[in-house]
Amino acid sequence: MSDPVCVIAGVGPGTGSALARRFARGGHHVAMLARNAQRLHELERELPHSKAYACDVSDAAQVDATVDEICRELGTPTVLIHNAVGGAFGSFLEIEPAVLNRNFQINTMGLLYLSRRLAPAMVRAGTGNIVVTGNTSSLRGRPSYAGFAPTKAAQRILAEAMARELGPKGVHVAYIIVDAVIDVPWTRERFKDKPDEFFIKPAAIAEEAWHITQQDRSAWSFNVELRPYRENW
Predict the structure, then answer these.
(1) Domain residues of the chain, as ranges?
(2) Which contacts qualify for 197-204: CB closer than 8 Å, 24 or more apart?
(3) CB contact set of 63 (below 8 Å; sequence gap of 6+)
């Protein structure tokens, strides 16, 4: 197929769906990955040139099989967006160690598995984009984020190591730090007393991800921080 191919890992009802819509609108064939592809079927019907794939990105064998299928059906991907996320709340005394390990497998190892499969073709082509959606947990640890923040910090450092290696080879790697509460139904319910400007819109995150992939090579970003205009930081 002649159109470029974008792989989005972690397509849920918020940021993932917004990313799929934006890259489809930008002319990409979009491979949408989630552990349960059933929930993606409605989005697949809505978006031309999109296809749902059931894939647990923490499983290297599933990643390999899914990437092979994408390449056969859609073509060689030129964009990877790692939006899959595993999270948990609780102090280091409260969380089950297995929870931290599971989140690490999704957030960090998932990025590693996908990038190892997709980056070599980008390097051969001399062009490509890998964008990771993160948050402020990648920059600091808080007591109730012990099951989550360490995995996002590791994810960001992995992405930086990849950026330093792949950048000179023509592949742009960037990390988006979302410093805000994303506007989805469950956060609206949890923060029902907050005004609209408290939330960050999934479509706005997706628009910035698209912009990153369009940057001129003379001015590539790595750390990109996003927050509502009234957010304290």
Answers:
(1) 5-185+202-226
(2) 197/228, 197/229, 197/230, 198/228, 198/230, 199/228, 200/226, 200/227, 200/228, 201/18, 202/14, 202/15, 202/17, 202/18, 203/18, 203/21, 203/22
(3) 55, 57, 110, 113, 114, 117
Residues 6+ apart with CB under 8 A from 55: 9, 33, 34, 35, 62, 63, 66
Residue 23 confidence class, pLDDT cut points 50, 70, 90: very high
Residue 94 CA to residue 181 CA, distance in Å, equals 24
**CATH T-level fold of 5-185+202-226:** Rossmann fold (3.40.50)
Tokens 């991907």 sit at which residue? 77
> 84, 66 in Cβ contact below 8 A?
no
Instruction: Write down the H helix ranges in the chain.
Output: 15-25, 41-46, 60-73, 97-104, 110-125, 149-166, 185-190, 202-213
Question: Which amino acid appears at position 218 of this protein?
Answer: S
Is residue 181 within 8 A of residue 187, CB to CB? The reply is yes
pTM score, whole prediction: 0.95
CA 203 to chain centre: 14
Residue 1 has pLDDT above 70, yes or no: no
